[in-house]
Amino acid sequence: LFNSALPKEVRAIFREKLFRQFDFLQATLNEKTYLTGPSFSVADAYLFTVLGWCKFFSIPLERWPALLAYRETINARPAVQAALLAEASL
């Protein structure tokens, strides 16, 4: 999906697989705030990063409202804001 050298048909297959994973995550995050339990984990940090990549590949997250809400929840964490500011200064 992220390799522009791949044929369009192959990227479409990867996109479809990614969307199925997002469907699963949508169902999961409809039921809870974080991926693996009641508190923030490294899995949440990674998913937040992956969701941020979607804008670079024209993947509209509006199809998954729970993922949008999740991204906003994670983005609002003070430590995440601090990390994003530190990253922007590099």
From TrEMBL:
InterPro entries: Glutathione-S-Trfase_C-like, Glutathione-S-Trfase_C_sf, GST_C. One of its GO terms (molecular function) is transferase activity. Coiled coil: none annotated. PROSITE patterns: GST_CTER (PS50405). The keyword rRNA-binding does not apply. Residues 1-90 form the GST C-terminal domain. Pfam families: GST_C. Keywords: Transferase. This is Glutathione transferase GstA. It comes from Klebsiella michiganensis.
